[in-house]
Amino acid sequence: MQSAVWHQRDYCGMGNTMTTVHIRRAGITDLKPLASLFNDYLLFYGRPDNLAGAQQFLGARITVNESVIFLAEIDGQIQGFVQLYPTWSSLSLAQSFVLYDLFVAPAHRRSGIATQLLNAATDYAIGQGASGLSLQTHISNHKAQALYESLGWVRDVEFYSYYWNLP
Q: Three-state DSSP class for 143?
């Protein structure tokens, strides 16, 4: 399933030529190129190379609508993505979304693509009547933290985050 373009923006990329970025929701037909970029994301975080696993994981999420993925395309090539997982906020008595994955291909970083993907995620959550979006980022990922904070995201000072790693 592919939906209409959410955002389009021209930016000056490498070489100062104008390039149009299309932001749209991913569908199952995007699986192979998306899995390749997702595998790069896994490698970025020090995980083993696993293209087949990436494709299987994303295919399952898309097929049963367990996540919402937006793509950033330049000249028909996927250069970035953001993945949201729906959840519920008991305290807000409403749906919310966890922004779990955000990645832009290295050649297109610092071009505004991450901001466009975050804006598409926010627009989508608002359209769904969600109470908010949450995310976690590594403590040392200062570039991501600066981006989030520049867009109005607020670091949680009320709750601690815990995790129990299962065998």
A: helix
**Residue 160, amino acid:** Y
Q: How far is CA 1 from CA 31, 36, 71, 83, 91, in A?
A: 11, 19, 13, 16, 33
Check if the beta carbon of residue 37 is closer than 8 Å to that of residue 77.
Answer: no
User: Whole-angstrom Cα distance, residue 130 to residue 133?
Assistant: 8
| Whether the predicted model's global pTM rises above the 0.90 cut | no
Environment class of residue 58 by beta-carbon count within 10 Å: exposed (0-12), middle (13-18) or buried (19+)?
Answer: buried
Tens-binned pLDDT, residue by residue, of the chain (167 aa) = 333 344 445 444 555 455 789 999 999 999 999 999 999 999 999 999 999 999 999 999 999 999 999 999 999 999 999 999 999 999 999 999 999 999 999 999 988 999 999 999 999 999 999 999 999 988 998 999 999 999 999 999 888 888 899 99
